[in-house]
Write a structure and sequence with these properties.
The chain is 32% helix and 21% strand. By secondary structure, it is of the alpha/beta class. The protein folds into three domains: 91 residues, Rossmann fold (3-Layer(aba) Sandwich); 203 residues, UDP-N-acetylmuramoyl-L-alanine:D-glutamate ligase (3-Layer(aba) Sandwich), CATH 3.40.1190.10; 132 residues, Alpha-Beta Complex (Protein-Tyrosine Phosphatase, Chain A), CATH 3.90.190. Helix 1 packs parallel to helix 6 and helix 5 packs parallel to helix 11.
Length: 456
């Protein structure tokens, strides 16, 4: 077995099994092949995406199997797993019994770069913050690149840099709690903790387990590195105290933040000078202003000047499926927030409007308490609950608001047309995973937009 108590000096001729043939698995296999490891890739699935990815492996002459995990996956000295594969799966339980060391694709990639890494985590806002920060890190001194939980393989980006060295590189990684489970030596230069609310409890079991998985992001950091944390989030504030990085708080409150804060009309610096007017920002809601301040703080620590930070904020547009205003017809505003897969995301969406809302909730329940939305219902005109979670949603709200239960999202879209009036908002912010009716939240959001445009 490979001893991973320290980073291996070489993987040449080492037998390495990669579990999962998605984006991260393919990226890991390519990087391992470059370093002349003896790679084998295995995936239980046999979908079209998996079969297409297997063609890449064939071109690289990397052996693989689909539709099973045969005994061959255990004939290895190291196992690299995709983030969607939990520790309680049979393949990883057996690997543990055989004392096979297991790491993730992010950990693997980090072994082969000296470039600074900024790692962004949180229950909500990771993608917005990561993409905004990457744009701030495009300047004369830095060439920022995105990877991680954003659908881009970190290992593949590392391989590209190995082939074509870039001395200005800085990596901005979106990191999920699934990915931190397999960290051993991963050590970012800057970690960013946006917020922590209950999520993925179907995998982690308890909120404490989920919180600990998030905090693991920074466990290898030291006083030569930075931890930017949301001082407005009590769970984070308490949990990061045990960590050894330089603690950099950010807050909407200018008196409690490290450098940037918020007033009624603008984002300001510590000396109360203006960074940017809220009127020049496309993103809406305090949760987004918090994300902006987090990204700006990281850029400031890197030495990016305030003018470039402000220009990046002004040019930045909302990401698809996150509070995406895509249509207005007959005075009704339509918002696609399909990426809102937990309760706290829905709270943020509801708190962003001061007009009547027709809220579409539902999908595959993944934990959390919908009753936590009750204090945020003052602007809700009606809730349409759909999918597997509809009964849970109905039981949570009872008669607190007008509520309609319906089987699928398309029927929910049709129903909105008989409810919405000029000056109101139709908001898809499901608070659930999409997997009961869709492949992912992107497909759910795209279908919502297509059906709305058809009905209006």
């Amino acid at each position: 077995m490979i001893n991973i108590k320290s980073i291996p000096k070489s993987l040449k001729n080492k037998r390495v099994s990669v579990i999962g043939m998605g984006i991260s698995g393919i990226g890991a296999a390519k990087l391992l092949k470059h370093y002349k490891a003896d790679v084998f890739v295995s995936d239980l699935g046999n979908s079209i995406d998996i079969l297409e990815n297997s063609n890449h492996l064939s071109d690289l002459k990397i052996p693989f199997e689909t539709g099973k995990h045969s005994g061959k996956v255990f004939d290895c000295e190291l196992m690299v797993v995709s983030p969607g594969i939990g520790k309680e799966t049979s393949v990883l339980r057996k690997a543990q019994k055989l004392n096979i060391p297991v790491i993730g694709e992010i950990e693997l990639g980090s072994w082969f770069t000296e470039a600074p890494i900024i790692a962004v985590t949180g229950s909500n806002g990771k993608t917005t913050t990561s993409k905004l920060l990457a744009s701030m890190c495009q300047n004369n001194n830095f060439d920022g690149v995105l990877a991680g939980n954003i659908g881009i393989s970190f290992s593949e980006k590392i391989l590209q840099d190995i082939i074509n060295l870039n001395s200005k590189r800085v990596f901005i990684l979106e990191i999920s709690s699934f990915q931190t489970e397999y960290f051993v030596h991963f050590k970012p230069y800057i970690s960013i903790f946006l917020n922590i609310t209950p999520d993925h409890l179907n995998r982690h079991g308890t909120f404490d387990n989920y919180l600990n998985a998030k905090i693991k992001l920074a466990e290898n950091q030291d006083r030569e590195s930075f931890g930017i944390f949301n001082d407005d989030d009590n769970h984070i504030n308490v949990s990061i105290q045990k960590l050894d990085f330089k603690k950099i708080p950010f807050s909407l409150d200018p008196e409690r933040t490290f450098y940037f804060g918020l007033n009624d009309t603008k984002i300001i610096k510590k000396n109360h000078d203006e960074l940017i007017s809220l009127a020049n920002i496309s993103l809406i809601g305090n949760h987004n202003y918090s994300n902006i301040i987090a990204a700006a703080t990281a850029a400031h620590l890197l030495g990016v000047n305030d003018t470039h930070i402000a220009e990046s904020i002004q040019k930045f547009k909302p990401i698809p499926h996150r509070m995406e205003e895509f249509h207005t017809k007959d005075g009704v505003q339509y918002i696609n927030d399909s990426k809102a897969t937990n309760i706290d995301s829905v709270k943020c969406a509801l708190n962003s409007f001061n007009k009547p809302i027709i809220l579409i909730l539902g999908g595959k329940y993944k934990g959390g308490n919908f009753e936590d939305l009750l204090p945020h219902t003052k602007n809700i005109k009606a809730i349409i609950a759909y999918g597997e979670a509809q009964e849970i949603i109905v039981n949570a709200f009872r008669d607190a608001v007008r509520l309609e239960a319906i089987s699928n999202l398309k029927q929910a879209v049709i129903l909105t047309q008989s409810i919405a009036q000029p000056g109101e908002v139709v908001l898809l912010s499901p608070g659930c995973a999409s997997f009961d009716q869709f492949k992912n939240f992107e497909e759910r959001g795209n279908c919502f937009k297509k059906w709305i445009l058809k009905e209006t």
